[in-house]
Specification:
Length: 425
Amino acid sequence: MGDLFAEAARTRQAESAPLAVRLRPRTLGALVGQRHVLGEGSALRRAIEEDRPPSMILFGPPGTGKTTIARIVAERTGAEFEELSAVSARVDDVRAVIGRARDRLGANGLRTILFIDEIHRFNKAQQDSVLHAVEDGLVTLIGATTENPYFEVNSALLSRCTVVELHALTEEELTEIVRRGGEELDEPVSDDVARLVAVRAGGDARATLQILELAVATAASEGGAVTEAHVLDAARTRPLLYDRKGDQHYDFASAFIKSMRGGDADAAVYYLAAMLEAGEDPRFIARRMVILASEDIGNADPNALVVAVAAAQALELVGLPEAQLNLSQAAIYLARAPKSNASAIAIWEARRDVREHGNARPPAMLRSTGHKAAARARGHGEGYLYPHDDPGGFDLSYLPEALRGRRYYRPSGTEEERTDGGEDR
């Protein structure tokens, strides 16, 4: 009786499952996208088709087919498929899977594929617990993560796996998925509606089908065909592909900094908006602007540092969302300011000299004369000219004797960073 109810439950669950589950591809041929790693004749595809899949880490944005590929590999190879979620799995759960894999292999030669979803959430002990089983070939590991595994997975486990980077699906690929979804729902979908769903899904196949399913259900309740208005209602916001510790964090921060350095205010504001919308720490953004104000602008516009620090202080004073105005103002100012890295080069080169040659002692004329009699007896202060009394003091070199003639600060020649007077000594 139990088996009868279980079978009925499985049947009804399949019928009522979300559209994304019902349309999950079961073969590589049915998979949409990822041709760069799974196209005809590719090394990974041939390995799967020839029943020799490697342990691998599938890394990419949500909805790019990580779980689907793992299941296809299991079905294609005929291996037993074991699935764990790193969010809830413990070391004991991993050991239990490995124990079953050993029994299976010993009893009938059946191999095991262990799929670990969100593997980046496994701590070191959990990752170590699966390491030897992967190394010995007891299990074929397929890990899935939205985070860059080179940041999140330990090097020992990484060295035993092939890292496969999956890309967000293109609008053309998502449009194909929309058409398949429309056929499954027995709902004609116009080209305009299909394109809009693809645009709003943000490269995510799962989100594509969720938007379509909700839009079709809404249209059906109104007794009409699905329209663009139904799609917009079903997709209130577009998914943002951003992780605050991995690639997107560094990529967007890099683009933001380089846009300000390159003088593109529009791009700087766009990347600022993208980071804020994705929940980036605004203090991180403010710190980067303060650094850039000295590193890339410096004395070409001394007010740049004042503006950047003021924006950072305003952020602490008023917080978001209002502080977005202060951050935007500062980003635009920094992008439009004249540029010079002379101050940055000066300190970098001076510190390099100190590291390579030691801290050369100041010349005698600059040494302390606090204990006047003893200091003067040793020549301290001899030859020093007080610049306010004798302008000749502005013409002296104050560097240690071994470094006389060394130039660290080389002004750029911009209007503010002039090269006349004492600055060009």
